[in-house]
Amino acid sequence: MKNYAIAIHGGAGTISKSSLTPEKEKAYKDALEQAIMAGHGVLQKGGSALDAVELAVLHLENTPLFNAGRGSVFTNEGKHEMDAAIMCGKTLDAGAVAGVRHIKNPVKLARKVMDKSEFVMLMGQGAEEFALNHDIEFAPAAYFYDEYRYQQLQDARESGKTQLDHSEKKKHKFGTVGAVALDMDGNVAAATSTGGMTNKKYSRVGDTPLIGAGNYANNKTCAVSCTGHGEFFIRAVVAYDVSCLMEYKGYTLQKACDEVVMKKLKSIGGDGGLIAVDTAGEVVLSFNSDGMYRASKLNDQETFTAIYKD
Predict the structure, then answer these.
(1) What is the pLDDT of residues 81-124, one digit of tens each?
(2) Given the residues 14, 63, 75, 176, the one annotated as active site
(3) Domain-wise residue ranges, the chain
């Protein structure tokens, strides 16, 4: 039987043991476990990598612990603007949405854009109009409201700065969620979702919905989902760069990820991380920050979950 594998992330950044209570740490690990087991269940039954990453990300969107879907941070206007993307490694088909405000699960809308439209990316009101025509579930503003996130907005407004996810003082956490998977048929897929930056203005969009920057999948190489300061990931075209190093230079997945995350990205001031899986089932969880909420599972082996660097 061929290998099948899945990996997920819930954001990276300055995450130290002192910044999380034992109860909070357990809550994060439990959420990661539930999400990865949901996606793994799809693969275990012979389902597609696409379905697996969509379901895993949907689980992460549904918990307020992570900056995506229900846990999305507030914009400067006190609203929510969410982005998501999904990509199929077999066909290179992709779907993405940016700046949606009322979609319960943006990853589901991204999948619908891929499956039911001639486009790759839709944004704002147009994306929501498309959602209405394709039975995508909406949610009221109250669904996305979280008191902790709201206080982050107040702090950011006082400082006059944009903050990366639930940054507090100098502890930065980049709140994107994502999943990559390899199914039994040898196909890879990636999905990524985010609420963006606290206190962001002007409908800012980061790397998450940009195919090749924050999300990419190609059966020739690998599937990648990123989390970090989006502007740097866009400039470095991080997800596609990992794939290119494998396809054109013959790098292993680990070597390609190390080159991009630990060298190229850091050289321009970018921090964060990514998860990746290749068509052989190798999984890499790479980050240059102090921590990354992450989990992985190969075949029926024990599930790996971690938060901190060590």
Answers:
(1) 999 999 999 999 999 999 999 999 999 999 999 999 999 999 99
(2) 176
(3) 5-308
